[in-house]
């Protein structure tokens, strides 16, 4: 039996986050205002046709799988990237952030989207912040750094949306917020995980310093209509 993390989007969309799913036959995707990720149960022709119909109806999707998908009639590969799937089952000795931060709410949604659009930490949409809890740092009321939760699977929650405004980098905000988010996930009895581009050696070194280890490589494939 495969591990839930081997197919994180499928595990999330058919489990704890099924409420955020849009279905087309056997295929599932996050509702477009929440996220880009999608999955089908297998590579059978009928399942892939359902995935193609989902893209036709709701726009591009991203697959996070151990292997890239086979050619799918009606779809084209917009991009593909090798990623590290990293987990941090044990607490990091660094502890809590040494700066003030706060819980983010729906009232912060416009600033969260603006910061994510500016810094491009990964797919982030108008309702992405509703997938889990987010924390952030503000300067004079302006959101300058944040981190939170995205995909939630059996026994695991993804740390995501980690970003800092360019004018405030180098102050440890991202690392501190990530440690807090990860610690809170562990307090629920779950294991925090994240995805990072394999070529992003600087970020991966930081994540390893924060206690995240590469579990395995996965492939991010963005599909669009052909």
Automatic annotation (TrEMBL):
Domain N-acetyltransferase, first and last residues per copy: 99-226
Coiled coil segments of this chain: none
What is a single Pfam family found in this protein's UniProt entry? FR47
Output the InterPro entries linked to this UniProt entry.
Answer: Acyl_CoA_acyltransferase, GCN5-like_dom, GNAT_dom
What is the name of the protein in this document? Answer: GNAT family acetyltransferase
Organism listed in the record: Phenylobacterium koreense
Give the source lineage, highest ranks first: Bacteria, Pseudomonadati, Pseudomonadota, Alphaproteobacteria, Caulobacterales
């Amino acid at each position: 039996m495969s591990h839930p993390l081997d197919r994180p989007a499928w595990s999330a969309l058919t489990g704890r986050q099924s409420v955020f799913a849009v279905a087309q036959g056997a295929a599932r995707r996050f509702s477009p205002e929440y996220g880009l990720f999608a999955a089908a149960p297998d590579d059978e022709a009928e399942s892939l046709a359902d995935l193609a119909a989902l893209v036709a109806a709701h726009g591009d999707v991203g697959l996070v799988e151990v292997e890239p998908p086979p050619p799918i009639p009606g779809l084209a590969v917009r991009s593909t990237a090798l990623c590290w799937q990293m987990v941090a089952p044990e607490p990091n000795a660094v502890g809590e952030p040494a700066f003030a931060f706060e819980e983010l709410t729906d009232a912060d949604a416009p600033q969260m989207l603006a910061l994510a659009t500016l810094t491009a930490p990964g797919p982030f949409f108008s309702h992405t912040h509703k997938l889990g809890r987010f924390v952030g740092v503000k300067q004079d009321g302006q959101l300058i750094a944040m981190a939170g939760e995205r995909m939630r699977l059996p026994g695991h929650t993804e740390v995501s949306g980690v970003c800092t405004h360019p004018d405030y980098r180098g102050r440890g905000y991202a690392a501190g917020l990530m440690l807090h988010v990860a610690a809170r996930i562990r307090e629920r009895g779950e294991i925090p995980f994240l995805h990072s581009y394999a070529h992003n050696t600087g970020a991966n070194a930081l994540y390893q310093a924060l206690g995240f280890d590469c579990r395995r490589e996965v492939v991010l494939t963005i599909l669009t209509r052909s």
